[in-house]
Amino acid sequence: MEAPQHSGSSYIVIDAERCKGCHLCVSVCPKGIIAPASYTNQKGYILAEVIAAKAQECTGCTACALICPDAAISVYRHSRVLSPAAR
Ligand code: SF4
Ligand code: SF4
Question: Which domain holds residue 46?
Answer without folding.
Answer: 10-83
